[in-house]
Please model this.
Amino acid sequence: MSGDRAAGPLLSVRDVHRRFGSGPTAVQALRDVSFDVGTGSMVAVVGRSGSGKTTLLNVVGGLDSPDTGTVVVDGTEVTALDDDGLAGLRRRTVAYVFQTFGLIPVLSAAENVGVPLRLARVPVREREQRVARLLDLVGLAEHARQRPDELSGGQQQRVAIARALAASPKLLIADEPTGQLDAETGLAVMALLRGVVEAENVAVLVSTHDPVMMALADRVLRMHDGQIHEQEAP
Amino acid sequence: MTRRLRARPPAIHWPSVRGRARADAGPLLLVAAVVAVVTLLAGATPPLIRATADDAVRDAVRSAGPDAEVVATARFDYDDGVDGRVRNPGLREDVEDFRNRVDDALDPRLRAVLRRPVSVVSGPTFDVTDGSLLRTFQFTYLADERGAHSATQVTWIAGHEPRAAVPPEDAAISVPYQAPPWPVQVGLSEADAAALRVRPGDRIKLKDKNYRAKNVQVSGIFRANDSTDPTWRLAPGLLRPRSGADGVGNTRLGGLLSPESLPDARLAVESDELDRYVHFEANPDAISAGTARDVAAILVTLRATSTGSGSATAGDFSPRWQSQLDGVLGAVQIRINAATAQASVLLVGVLAGAVLVLLLAAALLARRRAQALTAARQRGAGLTDLGAELLLESTAVALTAAAAGLALARVAGPGISWRWAVPVVLAAAVAGPAFGVLRAARATRDRRVPANRSARLHLRRTGQIRRAAVEFAALLTAAGAMVALHQRGILPTPAASAGALAPWSDADDTAALASSAPALGVLVGALVLLRLLPPALRLALRRALRSRRPMAVFGTAQAAATSARALPLLVMVSATALATFALALGVTAERGLADAAWRTVGADVRLDAGQSEEVDVPALARRIAAAPGVRQAVAAQILDTARLTDGSGIIRPRLVVVDAAAYRELLASLPLPDAPALAGLAPTAPGAVPALVWSENGALRPGMRLELPRKDAPAVALTAVGTAPPVGDTRDVVIVDAAALTAAGVPVVPDTIWVTGPGAARATTGIAGVETVVRTEVLRERRTAPLTAGLLRLAWLSAATLAALGLLGLALGAAASAPQRWQTLGRLRTLGLRLRDGRWVAAGELLPAVLVAAAGGPLLGLLLALLTFDSLALRTLVGGDSDPAVAVPWWGAGLLAAGLVAAVAVVVWAESVLRRRRGLSELLRVGG
Model:
């Protein structure tokens, strides 16, 4: 696997601290975290439960704010954005894939994939073309009209990935995307993520426990007690 | 060796019970509040109705007047001697003895509700032959326990009390059958003396029905010590001339007999022409709803078993009992039963709404506790243990709240009734544990949703079939209830009502079913809407997907995703429908009361001069018409004693003699039925007076030919040329033009004035000699009548409670779906949805169900009102002869709908504020 393929980092995290609560029961979720992610790379964040993986991903995606430090995505300082700014960032630059898929149950697979495009008010024809391409990319072109409850878990996660890619984000954040899937399906989903890095030229920041999935990443950030202890290439 | 399985008592884990109660103190308090409020309403209403029933019985007896009297009649014994009739000097003692005998014969329970008896002896009516006016005369003896009225209740201002016609030594003289008319002395009131133009010592020129002259001498002129003494009502002609008492154009006068002249009165008429009565006036304060049934039954028995025919010719001198008191009590019993049944309809609605809300609250509580209950199960707690813990908690909450509600009911009213509170307490106690145990069982059972699609489909179909069966059963029950209500009405059947004078006594089973008809109908209607909503939302979603507005798509999609949740919609639709039903009942009753008051009075003010001739009614009408603020003052003569014949029998309608043009103008200016046919009351042919007729049962019809009999004159022919408007609270009406009747030779003596205009009340204040009936006063009196006021208050309270329950249903439903909604919104925000747009999506999710409730609920309530009001006997509430037309509570229904929609905005705002405090990351962690 290659390293960062872009000239400058797409994501730059510097000196980020995040603490929950106060007093003796306070939890220091992130401590002095700094790292960069370049365009077109897949970075895995690994660590035990409670090590701060999800907090890190949330801070990077603007779902949470750090107490100190900066997060810059594609030249935009995420920590300085207000609600509308964050919404704009999520609409154009950052996308998420969750463990529980988060699909809208009454919408078909194609309609779910089209949700970000609707939010971006993409014209209908362009939206339909994009949705068709993405469903094809994730191997669900024949399931476009099916609803989430008619799809398997792996298929639902693939729809979620297609939806995340719909608005052509530059950074895809995936928090335990295979957590609810069996090993085989999980591997297929990770392979898909690896594939979209190539196909869509996006950076992927993914948290996982699975060593097999770590092998698919360009880099692995190992977290322990809120700190990145080592950065290694698989 | 066999092991005996012994059921172990549930193990209560007290820390869990306390912990859950602390964590969910809010929802538990909410449940307690609902139980307390509904228990207060349900617990206080029956005793209040019972108390108002007592007041209603007393009111009815008080306003019934002569109809509430009990009268014993018996002829005098024969007075024949050897060669003629023998004067009986002990006649007064006979009368007193008769009074005492019938008094003693009364059942003590009946005696207890009657005032002291009054003896009345009256002769036939004689024609006054002095002058051309049609006048009649009747002498009367009145006596009560204070003595004869001639001695104790009057002051003789000229002459003296009537004396015996013979000296004491001839007191028992025998009078030959062919002797000249026997002399008798009478006293006259000042008014009667003036009308007859006689003084003490003068003789009144009279003749009997056989044209035989009578020898009646005026002994003196008296003035009543208290003309308002109710005993004078037994012979009102004694105090002043009464016009119309013996037919159209006739005036009756009266002469007072004394104990001394009573034996002479006996001889002055035929031996069977003197009647003696004993009048017992009912004492309203002594009657209650509880005693009324016994009183009515005793009266019926008394009448049925009294053997006396009262006919002297038949040789029967035993007393004959007459009374309409049992009818009066029967009528008020119907009103009480109707009010009780109407109250039960409203209470069933409130209880239905409350039970649904409690189910929704229980479901919310179970949802909130899902994780804790699952964890408890995983730690080894049995379902029985969890059920017992939850039951302990819910029972404590329900019973404490119910006790508080009942205590408040006791403070607010005369008593409490726990019977109606039972469903609410049961629902509060059982629903929570049931939902909780179900959720815990589902979370930990081995059976999972099958991966196989056809198996999933089979499961779904099975669920659908079960649900359809339940809904079909509800539909059948509601249809049965509606049929029962329409077939038997809301009032108890005769068999049931025979013992049901006391409110809240057990009626037949169909009565309970009939009372539930509106609530069941609403429930079925809500189920229909519930089934229509998902396909409608799917349709809306398909349309929204074609639109360019993302918020419409997401809102509709969210709504469609949650549309299968039954309880919130059921609560909102049922509560708003039943609230609208209660509002419609209240508004219909209010309008019915107003219409009935217009009909009773006939104008803003009605002046009744009665049968007194002291007031010059036409002149008074002219004077009032000229007063400021008076639009019209129309004089009329109203006769309820008129007898008409139609060739086949006698009809006793209300005869209204009025200036037809003026009356038509009057009606046109009032919210009373207009009567264009009044224009046709001009005479059509000599001798035939045109008339308008109206009859509730169709006995009087246009085209009929009627005759108005007159004494000593040919009957006046009437031709029914059209339909009359109803006049007052009577079943049959005949209206003739005053000029036409006068032209036919019948003197018209107006005794009534209808006055309209804003100054009508002021212009008619303080007029002596007339009774003033003000419409607003009549309306106020009826509106504040015990049963009516109680029912109206209950209707408004029910509407308010149900409206609050509807809003609570919205809030609880929103709270139950909030975690999922905001999690979905959070996911949409990760896709770029702005926070403020998220509120629109949240509103879009909640709005469809709310709009269905806001529009469908009131419409459903109105539909049920239209379908059931005819069977609710609302006429008993408004005091009219017919049920009032259903009035639509536009403002109330609009407010309900607007309130629900506005509540969505409040709920979304509150949710948004609450969720905003939690970061998006926290939001997305929920369930993830």
In short: Residues 1-6 of chain A have pLDDT under 50 and may be disordered. The two ends of chain A are 9 Å apart (CA to CA). Helices of chain A lie at 53-61, 83-92, 109-113, 115-119, 124-137, 153-166, 183-200, 211-216. The CA atoms of residues 128 and 203 of chain A lie 24 Å apart.
